[in-house]
Amino acid sequence: MIARIRLAKVPLCLLIGSAVLFGAILADPVVSPQILLVVGGVFLVATGAASLNSLQELGLDGKMGRTKDRPLPAGQLTPQQAGRQALLLILGGLLLLFLKTSDPLPAVMTASAVIFYNGIYTPLKKITVLAIIPGAICGALPAYIGWLAGGGEGFGFTATLLLALFVLWQIPHFWLILLRYRDEYVAGKLPNLLQQFRENTLKRLFITWIGALTFIMLMFATLPYPLANVVRYGVIINALCLAGIFFAWLKLRTSDDYRLLFVALNCALLGHMVILAVGRVVGNQ
Hints:
mainly alpha, 2 domains, Tetracycline Repressor, domain 2
């Protein structure tokens, strides 16, 4: 059972489910059973897509030190078991969305996300570093799915902020993984930016991306919702803390351990979602 949970990358998929709920709460602070079904359906599909991704990257995972202990390369599960798990979870999640929700749009967009992730991003990243573009789009869809499921308009100020937030967050998230395991990526055949740029150049690119991400996070404090001042200040402080951690590191550069930055980036996103979601719910009461 543990091997199957690891194959499905459940912790990552929980974050995806949280993004769906976050988008839905921004659209409508009243969390209905319908929204919970959407969250559950997207979560199931995400675990299925992650299982399929593990199967697709079996050969690559077996050659890298950080991934060789995953269930498939370690021999804890067979490719046939992984394929069945992926199929059951994807179909089960999509059926839940199609049959138990009144609006077909979340199901259609979730299916599109699987196509982007498993059909475009995964094979493309073996060919070009530009695979990060469809990867970032796919990663931004869960929050947008939640937003639409909650009754949000297709395109508007808040929807644009949601998409920009998750797109901009994913770029440094990927770069930090790349830098943390730079020796493996440089030695491997997978196309990556370290084959084209020096490490210090990639570090400097963080200034642009973290600056843009911080700006988008700050813009959430201007949302025209009944949010308490403490919520708006919390959003601002959280964003500025993230920028401060990265810029202090870029200036000092006392260590090449990227784990702290990776944790800080993820915690900042999670904190951002929690602050706004709680503030939205409380502000509606």
